[in-house]
Amino acid sequence: MEHEGILLGMGNPLLDISAVVDQEFLDRYDIKLNNAILAEEKHLPMYDEMASKYKVEYIAGGATQNSIRVAQWMLQIPGATSYMGSIGKDKFGEEMKANAKLAGVNVHYHEDESATGTCSVCVLGGERSLIANLSAANCYKVDHLKRPENWALVEKAKFFYIAGFFFTVSPESILLVAEHAAAKNKVFATNLSAPFICEFFKDVQDKVFPYVDFLFGNETEARTLSKVHGWETENIEEIALKISQLPKASGTHKRITVITQGADPVVVAEDGKVKLYPVILLPKEKLIDTNGAGDAFVGGFLSQLVLEKPIADCVKAGCYAANVIIQRSGCTYPENPHFE
Q1: What is the distance between the alpha carbons of residues 31 and 29, in angstroms, rounded to a whole number?
Q2: CB of 165 within 8 A of CB of 14?
Q3: Helix (H) or strand (E) holding 202
Q4: Cα 293 vs. chain centroid, distance in angstroms?
Q5: Do 127 and 104 form a contact (C-beta atoms < 8 A)?
Q6: Cα–Cα distances in Å, from 319 out to 80, 142, 273?
Q7: In angstroms, how far is CA 174 from the centroid of its own chain?
Q8: pLDDT per position as a tens digit, 43-52
């Protein structure tokens, strides 16, 4: 089958623990909306407090895994997508496996002795904040990737997507896949993912960027990247152009930068030019939460990219998927897509 295993993702498989909270809770744990951070000591009591105090939903998450699941849903082609990451040998891990199977994603998890990673999703007024406790997800090693049955997924894939969150876990694995993509003229995509990645993992970003054919991100992350690079501009179109013009390891594909801005148009920079694509506007009362919106956008985008559709179609599919996801809790979707 020609599309079998065409898209491979690698990342941190996390179980989202999602609840609508109040401002007092956010303040007490020093949480900002529309942000994503790694849990510190002070955040650890939060998980139990959420479960006891609010109505909590448990939803399979992890940025890359969300994107791959959405791409699989949009494609409706059995076996088109694969995913690797590290989970624990526990109840949450079993749930993750069952969820991936249901989604039709071919997962090759490393199973670790530590607990499956979780991500606390605090929702207020439809906006979300993510606090990730990586745990087992942090234990992914390049040895797992190099095992023949796993490397076979790399060989088979023509498109790769690894969100920026994995940069904190296994840069070695990322570079191995990125170098393979460049050598074989395949397509490698990544995401800025969070301001803290741009700030504190710049050295890894700098190593990976030359291999990046498609770079995704949102406006906050793009402005953080601009600041860290000393570009002295807050203008998203300028930043997107600068990112697309950073040095590239292989000349086969030109880098395309895709920056989302919530309800504002999607900014796409390629070939020294910028195009704006409006998003589907949603009445506020229909917004449940933005958790998974960026992941869904990437999943929708990639679903058309692997079919070699033009960029305008990829953006349209991304906007469609994000629009579906923000009307539901977490990164979940109905049985069938209605995307033309």
Answers
A1: 6
A2: no
A3: helix 202-208
A4: 10
A5: no
A6: 21, 34, 21
A7: 14
A8: 989 988 998 9
Kindly tell me the burial class for residue 193, based on how many C-beta atoms sit within 10 Å of its own C-beta (0-12, 13-18, 19 or more). Answer: buried
| Residue 212: Cβ within 10 Å count | 27
Evaluate whether 103 touches 72 at the Cβ level (below 8 Å): yes
User: Are the C-beta atoms of residues 126 and 282 closer than 8 Å to each other?
Assistant: no
CA–CA separation, 218 vs 240, rounded Å? Answer: 10
Report CA-CA distances (Å) from 329 to 12, 48, 56, 83: 20, 20, 11, 23
Task: Assign 3-class secondary structure to 148-163.
Answer: HHHHHHHHHCCEEEEC
Conformational region of residue 125, where left means phi above 0, alpha means psi within -120 to 50, and beta covers everything else: left
CA angle 230, 233, 238 (to 5 degrees): 110
Q: What percent of the chain has pLDDT over 70?
A: 100
Query: Could you tell me which of 38, 258, 328 has the C-alpha nearest to residue 166?
Result: 38
* Cβ atoms of residues 170 and 140 within 8 Å: yes
CA atoms within 13 A on the CB side of 159: 24
Sole residue written with tokens 């956010």: 26
Name the residues annotated as catalytic: 295
Cβ neighbours for 69, distance < 8 A, ≥ 6 positions apart: 60, 81, 100, 103, 105, 299, 331
pLDDT-derived band at 334 (thresholds 50, 70, 90) equals confident
Question: In sequence order, what are the residues at sequence separation of 6 or more whose Cβ sits closer than 8 angstroms to the Cβ of residue 47?
Answer: 17, 118, 120, 133
pLDDT score at 71? 98
Report the C-alpha gap between 148 and 96 in whole angstroms.
23
Model's pTM, two decimal places?
0.95
| Amino acid (one-letter) located at 75 | L
Which one, of 160, 137, 134, lies nearest residue 5 by Cα?
Answer: 160
> Does residue 193 sit in helix, strand or coil?
coil
- What DSSP letter does each residue of 128-141 carry, written as one string? EEEEEE-GGGGG--
